[in-house]
Design brief:
By secondary structure, the chain is mainly alpha-helical. The protein is 77% helix and 0% strand.
Amino acid sequence: MISMARKIKFKKLKISQNLAQLIIVMAGVFLGMLLTEWNTSRKSSRKKEVVIEQIQIELISNQKILESSIEHKKPFFESLDSLERSVSDELGDELFFNRPFLERFPGWQGVGGGLLDNSMYETAKYSDVIPEMDIELVREISKVYNTQNIYNGLRESFINQFFMMNSTTTYDDALRLIRQIGQELGGYEWKLQQEYKVVLEKLENRND
């Protein structure tokens, strides 16, 4: 018969083995959780970086559209003062559509080079990326996109006003609209240029 001492020793050994197995299982579970968390964090970090890179590309593209628009319109608006001085009272009261548009406004290049895109920023807003970004960077990005939206809306408004011109529109009416475009749209173009410069510099140096 197995002695009592040997039975106790056997039980203790069994308990030790079970405890060791339990510790190994718990350590495996803990390491698995750490690995899962690390993978999740890495994927989240990469996702954030991809979104920021796409926003940067979008803003650079918008900056180029804006600069091209300004460059094309510059000669016309530089000559607008002399054009207005050449319009007599009699000519100003003349119905605008009595003559071709480009005869009235030689060198006119339109109200702008196209809508400034915000699709990547809108995508980021409805994802879980924005809360993980640096608050100062988010503030600058939000600011420039808000200015873009105002600019796009103003540009659309001026285009609609062009379409609203009719057989009663005078040359003076059209001149006032053109001058308003130069002042208001031009003001937002200048503002956007400054904001693009700031936010793109921050995006470029974000990892420094």
